[in-house]
Amino acid sequence: MVEALRRAGLTVTGEQPTVGTLSGTVAEDRIPALAAVDGVRAVDREQMNRIPPS
């Protein structure tokens, strides 16, 4: 399944095989393709906001 997610556009940044999860980055418009991969139960979004130095 990891390779299918990569083909769908996911850049894997972490794998947690014991709990069956992955973390990674993907363009917003590719999220439906990730959700459609066989075996994917959920796709959770996490946004990172950066504050420029003052």
Task: Characterise this structure.
This protein is an alpha+beta fold. 20% of the residues lie in helices and 20% in strands. The chain has helices spanning 2-7, 31-35, and strands spanning 11-16, 21-25. A two-stranded antiparallel ribbon has the order 1-2. The longest helix has 6 residues, at 2-7.
In short:
Helix content is 20%, strand content 20%.
Largest sheet: 2 strands, antiparallel
Distance between the termini: 43 Å
CA-based gyration radius: 13 Å
Q: How many H/I helical runs?
A: 2
Q: H/E order of the elements?
A: HEEH
- Residue runs with pLDDT of under 50 for 5 or more positions: none
The main sheet orders its strands as 1-2
Strand residue content:
15-25%
Can you give the helix content as a percent range?
A: 10-25%
Number of strands: 2
Query: Structural class of the helices, strands and pairings?
Result: alpha+beta
Instruction: Identify the overall geometry.
Output: globular
User: Please, what is the average pLDDT?
Assistant: 90
List keywords for this structure.
54 residues; two-stranded antiparallel sheet; 20% helix; alpha+beta
